[in-house]
Amino acid sequence: VGSGVRVTGGLVVYYDFSxxxxxxxxxxxxVGVPLDLVILDRDKARWLPGANGVEFVDAGTAIRSRSGxxxxxxxxxxxxxxxxxxxxxxxxxDGSDPPRRIVAFSAGTWKHQVNxxxxxDGPDGVFRVxxxxxxxxxxxxxxxxxxxxRPTHLVASYDGSTMxxxxxxxxxxxxxxxxxxxxxxxxxxxxxIGNEAxxxxxxxxxxxxxxxxxxxxxxxxxxxxxxxxxxxxxxAIVALTLRPPQGGWxxxxxxxxxxxxxxxxxxxxxxxxxxxPGAAAPxxxxxxxxxxxxxxxxxxx
Length: 301
What we know:
The protein has helices spanning 70-79, 219-227, 230-242, 254-268, and strands spanning 11-15, 24-25, 37-39, 45-47, 54-56, 63-65, 82-90, 100-106, 114-121, 124-131, 135-141, 152-158, 163-167, 170-175, 191-193, 205-213, 292-294. It is α+β, with helices and mostly antiparallel strands.
């Protein structure tokens, strides 16, 4: 799929945004029937020239499935786990609006309309999921994005009781103490990238990769993906060249460039090394917090 050596165990859908033209973003994960997506307005979301990715240049559009994402529903409700992965470079970190959606498996902004979503509120990452315990679980990881235009690898996972986030290969927050299953999820909700189904929670910036797994990847597995994601990192460099980050190149932390070096090394080892899914060490995380909200108290966010 053009992204170096990847952990593939549990993969459900995978979008590398390599088409470069047209309105269709193909599910290239090779698992079951592909869940292809459509760009609703190509004047507001356009292909990144010379590299994989779609740049959302204006609000009010999305990349979404034409119907319900039953493929994701069936896989995740069977396992009661998931991981959502994205390579993104926001161009607007205004936190005055409700969280902007990066990836949403939902039908709207009310709690009962959400299966799960990954988004951002200004520089902070926001992660939400609904379970049968009558809770709409919402958690936030601070300072995921350190500036506009900076490519970031953001991964959120849930193993049935604990949510974790990993940013650029580094384990971040752990949120414990949740329960319930995904038995109240709706298979008719679409998969939406770059917005909510209502088109009222617009992400602005570039999205270069999205993947969904039916298990909680360990922090070590996510680090492996980050270090060996050669194509997305190259695409990120192209994106940075076309849209320089706020504060210039000096605003990008050294670990990002270290990741580029590791990606180059990893690409040379493609024929020699293939990670075994599930064989990685358990994750570690820094800090702990959690926030739950009763489903009976609807919110439009």
